[in-house]
Amino acid sequence: MANIEWCTATRKRNCHIPEVYCTEHHCTEPEPIRCKWCGSTEVIKHGIDKGVQQYFCTECKRQFTTLDCPYGMHTPVEQIGASLAMYYTGSSLSDIAQFLKQTYDNPVDRSTVYLWLIRFTKDAIAIFEEFKPKVSDTWIADETAIKFQDKLYWIWDIIDRDTRFLLASYLSPNRGTREAKILMELASKRADIVPAKVITDKLRAYLDGIELAFGADTKHIQSTPFTEIDSTNIIERFQGTIKERTKVLWGFKTVETARLILNGFTVHYNFFRPHLSLKNRTPAEAAQIKSPYKNWGDIVRKVGGIL
Ligand SMILES: [Zn+2]
Ligand SMILES: [Zn+2]
């Protein structure tokens, strides 16, 4: 966990140069306090709340502290970002709340962590939609069973063979032609191309689903142990890296929320999680996406309006 350290020499955050070596050590003029929302230096002190100095910007009329908290929130970006990362790697909301209390003495409860999760997951999905992956023309689809509200549901996934980029995930109680077609259309919309080949298991729904979505030009291959590409191995490795999904999703009350979190897992998997088989790059990096957002904290900072 990255702790925030203020360098006493340069007054920069996370300056990793030991103070005695820091070249800016002799700088005597302190940096002026800038408004963290608009950058103005027209700021005045505005009282102290719970031991934290408050400032008021006379330019944009907003209040702030020099703590790195998003607008209107009391928890610093790093802690919120860490909470989302923990969630998407399998920690429960209660575990996260307890972690914040113990590590930062920050008494938040699980409902607050839940609100962060929903809010910043929505934002991340919207932000990353703009980034189009460059993927191969061969995609692999599969379904995983999941128990949701005491019923059997399916998570449909489709990934790119070369970059392992997860093009689409779809949660549904059914496993028919309609769902197979929806999955293909979502993937095609995400990648902006129609694939030359789709590899699937023996499920009949794919036969018509793929043709309805892409026409006869896309070749459909039902994988066997002798298929040219080791699709079974690729899909099983993918499911291994994202297995927290199935544990987490059943806890939600509505399909809509479960679908939102499912897409949150997709963001985490594609953009934040490095893969050994991709030489420690993320699938997004393998798909030549250049994104300035390297972790959940970057999303929180962007959405929270911090300069
Ligand atoms: Zn320094
Ligand atoms: Zn301002």
What would you call the structural class? alpha/beta
Bound molecules: zinc ion
Q: State the separation between the terminal residues, measured CA to CA.
A: 22 Å
- Specify the CATH architecture of the largest domain: 2-Layer Sandwich
Query: Could you list the spans in which at least 5 consecutive residues all have pLDDT below 50?
Result: 1-6, 19-29
User: Largest sheet, order of strands side by side?
Assistant: 6-5-4-7-8
User: Can you summarize the main beta sheet?
Assistant: 5 strands, mixed
List the helices and strands and how they pair.
Blueprint lengths: L42 E7 L2 E6 L5 E2 L12 H11 L5 H12 L5 H20 L8 E11 L2 E10 L5 E7 L4 H15 L5 E4 L4 H10 L4 E4 L8 H11 L2 H6 L5 H18 L10 H4 L9 H8 L4
Parallel strand pairs: 4-7, 7-8
Antiparallel strand pairs: 1-2, 2-3, 4-5, 5-6
Helix pairs in contact: 1-2, 1-3, 1-10, 2-3, 3-8, 3-10, 4-5
The protein binds zinc ion (ZN) (2 copies).
Structure description:
With 307 residues, the chain is α/β, with parallel strands linked by helices. The protein folds into three domains: 23-64, no CATH class; 77-130 and 298-303; 138-272, Nucleotidyltransferase, domain 5. It is 37% helix and 17% strand. The chain is built from ten helices and eight strands. It has helices spanning 77-87, 93-104, 110-129, 177-191, 205-214, 231-241, 244-249, 255-272, 283-286, 296-303, and strands spanning 43-49, 52-57, 63-64, 138-148, 151-160, 166-172, 197-200, 219-222. The protein has a five-stranded mixed beta sheet with strand order 6-5-4-7-8, with helices on both faces. A hairpin with a 2-residue loop joins strand 1 (43-49) and strand 2. It is elongated, with a radius of gyration of 23 Å. The two termini are 22 Å apart.
